[in-house]
Amino acid sequence: MIIREAQPTDAPQIAPLMNLIYDEMELTDLEDVPEPDLLKAITAAYRTRTYLSGPATTVVAEADGQVVGMAFGYPGEREETVDDVFTQITAKSAAFDVPFETQSETAKGEWYLDSLAVSPDHQGKGIGHQLLRALPHYARRDNQAVIGLNVDLENPAAMRLYKRMGYEVSGEQMIGDHHYYHMQLEIGQRARVAN
């Protein structure tokens, strides 16, 4: 198993993993979008510099040359910039009645884990755990001392994983039609080097 930063060529394998999350979230704005069109839009987003190594970072778990898991996050202050990418892509697609827009999910002062997904064929093998263990490196690289995430109240298995990793509930919020716990993990911040 290799944990590494995603490359544009990984996008077609990342898209179905992200679609798993969208399915679980039951987003009404996406329910009428044909799956091939949604996968095409997600793939386009994960080929952009913004999603891969710019304002946001995408990390993948690779096994036998295949992407079997992914994590996607960014500093909370960059949320609007990151979200605008998918909004612009969907605005250009006839498959979307209106451009897809998300509501705010994060807070300033945290590196926000927007998405974490593992292929159904590879769940239960510790891949989510390995991806979570890699995230402090990227958060510190972005000079963030806290990682935040949201977990659906109806997903107790994910909640247990995050608690085992040291995340603590810091609040609650609604995203779409689902109620979520907001959780945070204090990771400390690396020392900044003076120039």
Describe this structure in a few short sentences.
With 195 residues, the chain is α+β, with helices and mostly antiparallel strands.
How would you explain this protein's 3D organization?
There is one protein chain. The protein is an alpha+beta fold and 195 residues long. The chain is built from six helices and seven strands, in the order βαααββαβαβαββ. Strands 1-2-3-4-5-7-6 form a seven-stranded mixed beta sheet, sandwiched between helices. Helix 5 links the parallel strand 4 (111-118) and strand 5 (146-152). The termini are far apart. Residues 191-195 have low confidence and may be disordered.
By CATH's scheme, which homologous superfamily applies? Gcn5-related N-acetyltransferase (GNAT)
Into which percentage range does the β-strand content fall?
25-35%
Please list the strands of the largest sheet in the order they lie side by side: 1-2-3-4-5-7-6
Largest sheet: 7 strands, mixed
Q: Treating each run of at least 4 consecutive H or I residues as one helix, how many helices?
A: 6
By CATH, the topology is Aminopeptidase
Shape: globular
Would you spell out the secondary-structure blueprint of this structure?
Blueprint lengths: L1 E4 L5 H15 L9 H11 L3 H4 L4 E7 L2 E10 L3 H13 L19 E8 L8 H15 L4 E7 L3 H9 L3 E8 L2 E9 L9
Parallel strand pairs: 4-5
Antiparallel strand pairs: 1-2, 2-3, 3-4, 5-7, 6-7
EC number: 2.3.-.-
GO molecular function, one term: acyltransferase activity
Pfam families: Acetyltransf_1 (PF00583)
